[in-house]
Amino acid sequence: MRRTGRGRYRNNWYRSKNKGNINSDDSSLNNTSTSARVTSTAGSSRAPANQLPIVISVGTDLNNIWKLYFPSDEKGSNETVAKHINSFKLYINKNRNLFDLEKIDQTHSVPLDVQNLQNDDEFIQEWSSFTTDLFENPVTTLSTLEYCLHETLNCAVKLKVRILNHQPVIPIASLKVNYFGKLVTIKGTVIRVGSIGLICTSMAFECSSCHSVQAVIQPQGVFTAPNFCQSCNSGVKFEPLQSSPYTNTTDWQVAKIQEIQSHSISGTIPRSVEIELQGDLVGTACPGDVLSVTGIVQVRGESKGGEDGKRAARLLQLYIEAISIHSQRNLSNPTLSFTLKDYYAIQEIHGSDDVFRLLVHSLCPTIFGHEAVKAGLILGLLGGTEHENGPRSNPHILVVGDPGLGKSQLLQAAAHAAPRGVYVCGASASAGGLTVALGREAGGDFALEAGALVLADKGVCCIDELDKMKAHHSSLLEAMEQRRVSVAKGGVVCSLAARATVLAAANPAAGSYNSQRLRLKPGEEIDNLPLVLLRKYIAYAQRYVHPKLSKEAATALQEFYLELRHNHDADPSGGTPITTRQLEACIRLTQARARVELREEATVDDANDVISLMKHSLIDTFSDEFGNIQLSRSINGSGVSSKSKLKKYLEALTRQSHQLGKDIFTRQELIQIHKAAGVQGDANDLIEAMHIHSYLLLKASNTYQLIPI
Q1: Nearest in space to 245 (alpha carbons), one of 13, 71, 23
Q2: Which part of the chain is the MCM C-terminal AAA(+) ATPase domain (predicted)?
Q3: Phi then psi for 87, rounded to 5 degrees?
Q4: Taking the CB of residue 401, how many other CB atoms lie within 10 A of it?
Q5: Residue 568: per-residue pLDDT
Q6: Cα 185 to chain centroid, rounded
Q7: Helix, strand or coil, per DSSP, at residue 8
Q8: DSSP 8-state secondary structure symbol assigned to residue 61
Q9: Distance CA 41, CA 641 (A)
Q10: 159: which DSSP letter?
Q11: pLDDT confidence bin for 628, thresholds 50/70/90
């Protein structure tokens, strides 16, 4: 028998001559290739410290419901438990409509809302200590509830209770050893999900002396053998029996959740804790999900340090044995809830004279000016209206400016203002750190580890120093457009949701941005919103406001889009292509502008504000000396027309590609072609400009592919 690093026995058994089967919960797994016996001794695997093996009597009927939940107690021996059983049975009979028998038969579990129990006066009168018992002694309390449900609902299999709406929610950072053995509820983001295996819950043993059989509970999956034979009282050697009906296994999986970044203390590593999933809970956790987990705090021993396990420090690690899981995968802001005071504050903000102006100046008030940039970030935080099976609703914002203008501070402020925000620096981020990584567990199985974009699902991912990410731009393309990231490594093929808005900052080769819009008048003061209130307002707008375009707003955006198309068609030989993506971006920003004022309809004024903001973002780069927008001008920040240089250089590259019969070039080869063609200007600047224009595709470090026109 092999055991994983966490002390969990998987379905890797030694083989013997006899073939058998393993029971999974209530039924046997027939036609397995596992052996019938596993050779072991009581001296090699004892019960956990301070805990005697719990032996199940095998002489009684297998259908004894009481022994399924209380294997070491006799029925009726505890009057308090009997009183609690009667009170809960009365509650079940009175609320039969709350229990879906068909679903219970499928999942072998029963969802139970504890708030309904606590609000039932008759039940609380009979079981006044229920809330305390559930927190202090969850194992006995849950077994009592499960026994009552099994017997009252006439179920054929052993049931598990899934506790719902358990309060209070404890921060992961506050989870200490004083909660050991208690029932707690925590909330966090899934950062790692392991593979699915089997865990043994009870195992039958045969005495080598008298050949009698006895079953032993395997606490937390730790291999536990009997201390002595109950028949002959002298046996010391026992053989595990796989094929016995008293040997049971169930599905098992380990996931790790991390405290939400907005709830963690700045400058510290976010706390994380492992959760163990069993039965129907297996497979419910996905990297990037925000989960509310209710479970029992347990500990496991782990060795650290020493050579080959000798003189190693014995450490205890907390983990949670999950009882129930509530996923908030489809909520736009699953990490926030609203109180009555929040609603009053939001109503007061909504009643301001100029809400948009107030929000703009409340975002990173330590940075003076840059109102247009702040306005773009606010619209990016709010996003557009999501439609089922429609185009994406989240806009992506790129902030370009000279070093030292506060771009990093603006992005950090946006990440903190977002209900769910993640901030990373592109200079030090890897492709796996941005999307998803595939790691190995202690037993050799693969585990998915969520990256920044997956952790920011339904939120905002702020990427600083985007221009420093020379080799990882391709990692962002799928997440930004398809709203997911795919993994195909080590035989694992899957895709994870990454429905995040990307707010990025980059340094251009030259040029700068400033704006006169939304600035305060001389001597004017404004009361900025606190960061917490700004986050609440954004979360409220995202959750409850879903604006649609009015006909006038749609007409204004259409005219602006046609104007851009006309300017591009007038000079089709160069410049950034104008497609429906620009139109969709304008629609998303217009819907976000309406969300600022909590309106369900985006008006023509909203559209005009967005058009003005779009034009402002194009003026420095795409405008000529007469103020007209020309999309054929360079977008590398210089503002100097380079159409002829790009065209001449592209023609030279195309000829060289036909002559050599290849389309992959290194940067050094591109520089040599530039020099041989006699094209004016810096070769590196032209290479970067062609890369931005999608004439060159970065395949690897300093290696590009020429895209045919």
Answers
A1: 23
A2: 355-537
A3: -65, -40
A4: 20
A5: 65
A6: 18
A7: coil
A8: -
A9: 83
A10: -
A11: low
- Please state whether the peptide bond connecting residue 226 to the residue before it is cis, i.e. omega within 30 degrees of 0: no
Count the Cβ atoms, other than its own, within 10 Å of residue 550.
17
Confidence band, pLDDT 50/70/90 cuts, at residue 472: low
- The alpha carbon torsion through 216, 221, 225, 230 (nearest 10 deg) reads -10
Per the listing, tokens 């049931």 go with 159
Strand, helix or coil for residue 179: helix
Strand partners of residue 16: none
Query: What value does the mean pLDDT of the chain take?
Result: 76
For 97-135, give one letter per residue: b (16+ CB within 10 A) or e: eeeeeeebeebbbbbbebeebeebeebeebbeebbebbe
Tell me the residue type at 475. S
Under 8 Å between Cβ of 505 and 410: yes
Work out the pLDDT band at 13, boundaries 50, 70, 90: very low
**Amino acid type, 609:** D
Alpha carbon distance 360, 376 (integer Å): 9
- CA distances 232 to 54, 56, 207, 209, Å, are 18, 16, 9, 8
Encode 142-168: b = buried (16+ Cβ within 10 Å), e = exposed. bbbbbbbbbebeebeebbbbbbbbbee
Tell me the mean pLDDT in the region 339-362.
86
Q: To the nearest 10°, the Cα dihedral for 191, 197, 199, 204? A: 180
Q: Are 619 and 514 in contact (CB under 8 A)?
A: no
Cα-trace Rg, the chain = 32
Residue 576's closest CA among 559, 588, 564? 564
Maximum CA extent, the chain: 104
From residue 609, alpha-carbon distances to 3, 581, 605 in Å are 63, 19, 6
CA 250 to CA 682: how far, in whole Å?
A: 66
Q: How far apart, in whole angstroms, are the C-alpha atoms of residue 13 and residue 444?
A: 16
Tokens standing for 215? 């079953």
Long-range contacts of 163-170 (CB under 8 A, 24+ apart): 163/112, 163/114, 163/134, 163/294, 163/323, 163/324, 164/111, 164/112, 164/113, 164/114, 164/115, 164/294, 164/324, 164/326, 165/113, 165/114, 165/115, 166/114, 166/134, 166/294, 166/324, 167/115, 169/292
Residue 39, pLDDT above cutoff 60 = no
For residue 88, how many C-alpha atoms fall within 13 Å in the half-sphere facing its CB?
Answer: 24
Residues 312, 314, 318: CA angle, nearest 5 degrees: 140
- Given a contact cutoff of 8 angstroms between Cβ atoms, the answer to whether 15 and 36 are in contact is no
User: DSSP label at 306?
Assistant: S
